[in-house]
Design brief:
Elements (H helix, E strand, L loop, with lengths): L4 H33 L9 H7 L20 E8 L6 E9 L4 E12 L11 H6 L7 E4 L10 E9 L1 H16 L11 H11 L17 H11 L10 E2 L6 H63 L2
Parallel strand pairs: 3-6
Antiparallel strand pairs: 1-2, 1-5, 2-3, 3-4
């Protein structure tokens, strides 16, 4: 049966609403159970977060801080970056030296599966379908996460060695129990929210619902302000030799392309320059010849006039 465009849109909308209702039910049940067992102020986390929380529980009574210190040399940054769609939220965590330079780091973001080394845009299909039904997912670094020029917002906190170890364990468990990606109920924003909950950070009320459909930039700024940081935080610098080999090779390849492109542009300009000069010289010679001819003609006429009786 063929559908006209309005009918197809209505059908897609109906399927999306039905899928959303089905997906919302388990979250609503989990939220009700959580409210009965805990206080109403406790932030709601995703089902995947609750599944691994028992295996990786934060150190009791210890909270992250916004200040770096000897005991807190491990960092966690919540990033929002630009993308072709509405952006992406992910977490970067690692360790710094005494100069607050990064000596090691990892990236964890939640996104639709499909991207591979030779197919960077293969997740587009899953991303599109994931706005209607759940799709396979991945947790890790996606293309663009390591490029500072794409970062729209940042919120950084500092943790101690015990918290860092437990955070690494939590991310590992989340990778083992990813769950499907869905644009409404299990996305990059809910994953970032879950990490904030795990670190005992203050989470705004608007982010405590099972479904968080907000721009990543807005979410990061809300988290930052809820924890007392009102201004944008500057990025940390990398310590010499701290970048992973694959990142170094990527940066070197990018740096090598720029001089090659500049050289090619220079060669094109140089190749075009002689022709321009030759054309200019020809025009100049023609102009000189014209001027000479124009000057000679009156002189000849004048001479002829004087010789005429």
């Amino acid at each position: 049966m063929r559908y006209t465009l309005p009918s197809a849109k209505n059908l897609l909308l109906a399927v999306g609403l039905a899928a959303a209702a089905i997906l919302h039910a388990p979250f609503a049940i989990a939220q009700d159970a959580n409210v009965e067992a805990n206080s109403a102020a406790a932030p709601t986390a995703s089902a995947a977060h609750k599944a691994v929380q028992k295996k990786a529980t934060p150190t009791a009574g210890v909270a992250a801080t916004t200040r770096h210190g000897v005991a807190h040399r491990y960092f966690v940054e919540f990033h929002a970056r630009n993308a072709e769609s509405y952006g992406h939220m992910y977490v970067m965590f690692g360790e710094v030296n005494d100069r607050e330079e990064i000596v090691k780091s990892e990236v964890a973001g939640f996104y639709p599966a499909g991207d591979e080394q030779h197919c960077l845009n293969c997740s587009v299909t899953n991303w599109t379908v994931g706005h209607v039904v759940p799709v396979p997912s991945e947790i890790g670094a996606s293309d663009g996460d390591l490029e500072e020029q794409y970062v729209l917002a940042r919120f950084r906190v500092w943790i101690d060695a015990a918290q860092y170890k437990q955070l690494v364990g939590y991310i590992k468990e989340r990778k083992a129990h990813k769950g499907p990606w869905n644009a409404f109920f299990n996305n990059c924003v809910t994953f970032g929210r879950d990490v904030a909950v795990f670190l005992n950070l203050d989470v705004p009320l608007v982010l405590r619902t099972p479904s968080v459909v907000m721009y990543p930039e807005t979410v990061v700024k809300l988290l930052r302000e809820a924890n007392g940081v009102m201004k944008e935080q500057l990025p940390l610098k990398d310590a010499p030799g701290s970048l992973p080999p694959e990142v170094v090779s990527k940066l070197q390849a990018s740096a090598a392309k720029e001089p090659a492109a500049e050289k090619e542009a220079t060669e094109k300009e140089a190749a075009a320059a002689p022709h321009s000069k030759k054309r200019f010289a020809s025009r100049r010679d023609e102009g000189a010849a014209t001027s000479s001819g124009a000057a000679t003609a009156p002189a000849a006429a004048s001479s002829a006039g004087r010789s005429t009786p």
